[in-house]
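To fix ideas, we give here one paired sequence and structure record:
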Amino acid sequence: MNILVTGASGGIGRPVCERFLAAGHCVFGLDLLPSPLAHDCYAHHQADVTRPETFPALPPVEILVNNAGVQNADDIGVNLVGAMKVTEHYLSPSIRSVLNVASVAAHNGAEFPAYTASKGGLVAYTRNLAIRLARYGATCNSISPGGVRTRLNAPVMDDPAAWGEIMALTPLKKWATPQEIAEWVYFLTVVNQSATGIDVVIDNGESTASARFIWPSPSP
């Protein structure tokens, strides 16, 4: 199948691409940055999800993963509007599944305001899209990760005090790896045939214990 992954260069996006490639699919990556991936079935395109004029011409997309995201940098424009622009641009009757990467902040409202709003909007858009894609027999779901061990979260992972507070609030005493999130993406887009319009929270129980958002205070 032809898979399109946004935010493909690092973080969660690169392991998602690698998971699809390992299963024998053709993967197209979109990102502002170049990709370190080198694979016969991978094609990378440097593009801006907020600017459709930068979108490459691709063969019919069968699975779309909207993973591109930012924090405190035009969050609504990139995380929500960008995902909508990419989706509407590449939608066709060939579509089999769409997966949007939201955040547990969409449920507990505990993070930065614009980030929280962007991810909450993405969950709502997922439900709208699920209704519209049903005529193609296609599914559309979202996942809402809590903490994931990516470079974006280095400010708390590298801060012993902040990390200790987070672990004290997290029942399973760990964060997910990007590779684990990639398995969820693969399951919901390839294995899953019947669940649609749902959001899956993957946060090691953190949101069930507390809605506190822990982040280092800026230096004076």
Residues 2-149+175-206 form a domain with the Rossmann fold fold (CATH 3.40.50.720).
